[in-house]
Amino acid sequence: MSKSLLAIPACGKFLFGVVALLAISFCSVAQNGQIVYKNHCAGCHGGQLQGSAGPALIKKEWKHGGDRNSILKTIRNGIPSTEMIKFEGILSAKEIEAVTDFIINAQTSPQLLKKTELPLQVTTKLYKLKIEKLVTEGLTSPWGLEFVDANHAFITGKNGELYSLLNGKLDNQKIAGLPKVYGTDLVGGMMDLALDPNYKTNGWIYIGFSHNPQNSSDKTVPGMTKIVRGKVSEHQWVEEQTLFQVHDSLLVTGGTRWGCRFLFDKQGYLYFSIGDMNRANDSQILSRPSGKIYRINPNGSIPKDNPLIGKKNYLPAIYSWGNRNAQGLAQHPVTGVIYASEHGPQGGDELNILKKGANYGWPVITYGIDYNGSIITTETQREGMEQPITYWTPSIAVSAIEFVTGQRFPRWQNNLLVTALKFEEIRRLVVKGDKVLEQEVLLKGYGRVRDLKIGPDGALYVLTNTPDTLLRITPE
Predict the structure, then answer these.
(1) Does domain 8-113 have CATH number 1.10.760.10?
(2) In the chain, which segments carry CATH 2.120.10.30?
(3) How many CB atoms lie within 10 A of CB 249?
(4) CB atoms within 10 A of CB 429
(5) pLDDT in tens, 83-103
(6) What distance in Å separates the CA atoms of residue 156 and residue 142, rounded to the nearest whole number?
(7) DSSP letters of 229-270?
(8) 211-225, 229-243, 265-279: the lowest-pLDDT one
(9) Residue ranges of the chain that CATH labels 1.10.760.10
(10) Which of 63, 205, 219, 372 is 20 to 30 A from residue 295's alpha carbon, by CA?
């Protein structure tokens, strides 16, 4: 015990102890609340409460009340007709109180939001990784990344942007004339992009985005994912062609879980996903677009061997169904097998092998439960429905996946990299056929990883939102 503490009178020691305990308690609550916030709230409201897909939480005017009781009520019950879901049943009462207190304390205690500088070297099982912050400013809610060559790449932004990356730096001149997106929060936005396999000769860029025929940003107007292709000429989006758009009678109002991920396979077919749009049962209805993975030719025509060709009232572009929200597609560089990652509800994120005409079971079977804690189904298996090759409970909020190719990471060759939004992770999976033999967390805490690509130089490029950054990772 220190002399200074011994010198304090008995009553002073008692008060000192009380103050110390209160300080420890405050720090503990703040820390726990910050963890809850990071895991459940940062994706929409920003890592620093600055706003992202959802509104900022550092502010003076609160539409639904900014006092403790009002914020507790908002978090518990959600806000009807908005994307603010009910967290009662997802979070415990103590977690809701902790995150509420964190939000309130952050208004007057900016030190709670102080960023922790993460190391730029990380040791993994097979490599020591060097992390370079390539882009830290200029991106807003980035979603998809594709390389033209070693010096040029395109990045989509959820608010409707198409960024051009030149020699590792963002082009200051914006690309104009892009299609208008429907909503910029949890309701859609500009999602993935792909480059035509013959891009160097034809210049086609493929984009998936949320759309409504009225070009309205009003979320009460029905909409659906639309797939187009176009070209960029002198910073202008030109020659746009519609490849996939459903009839107005199939549009939905207030949908969430839009998808949408692209993949060109080795045969030149274009695959894309559409989430279940918060209409789980539609995933099993083949005349409705939600909850499916699609396959089309680059010009939008339907491959003759698609599973629903010639079947009346069915959407012929459908390749698989019973999908909840597939946000990762990747083809094994040797076997040609296509893998898909898929968001589960609360638990039950999946990694699947994509098969033509297969039913992946949602919502008839699942390894997860609903966000309010209720049981969606008691079945995890049913004849005629596919099983995942692995699944994650609790949910990691699985997103993009990518097989490792090239010469820079030979000890990772043909391993599958899997991203996690919620846990801000990149995982390395050793996959053999329908078995996952090994999993390793390579990176954690650098942001919600939305996309990643092995670049033409063999480096790993990682696109995160919250914060909006592009990282370049190489072995030491």
Answers:
(1) yes
(2) 121-475
(3) 7
(4) 19
(5) 677 888 778 899 899 889 889
(6) 6
(7) EEEEETTEEEEEEEEE---GGG-BSS----EEEEEE-TTSPE
(8) 211-225
(9) 8-113
(10) 219
Q: Any idea which architecture 121-475 has in CATH?
A: 6 Propeller (2.120)
- pTM (two decimals): 0.85
**pLDDT tens-digit profile of 175-214?**
999 999 986 556 689 999 999 999 999 999 999 999 998 8
CB-based contact 76:86 (threshold 8 Å): yes
Residue 334 contacts residue 312 (beta carbons within 8 Å): no
The pair of structure tokens assigned to 151 is 């010096």
* Residue 203 burial (C-beta neighbours within 10 Å; 0-12, 13-18, 19+): middle
Tokens of 273: 């996903």
Within 10 angstroms of residue 220's Cβ, the number of other Cβ atoms is 8
Q: Are strands 338-342 and 349-353 parallel, antiparallel or unpaired?
A: antiparallel
Cα–Cα distances (Å) from 343 to 309, 350, 392, 416, 421, in that order, read: 28, 7, 10, 17, 10
Whether residue 422 is predicted with pLDDT greater than 80 in this model: the reply is yes
- For residues 95, 98, 100, 103, the Cα torsion angle rounded to the nearest 10 degrees is -130
Do the bridges between strand 205-211 and strand 224-233 make them parallel or antiparallel, or are there none, so unpaired? antiparallel
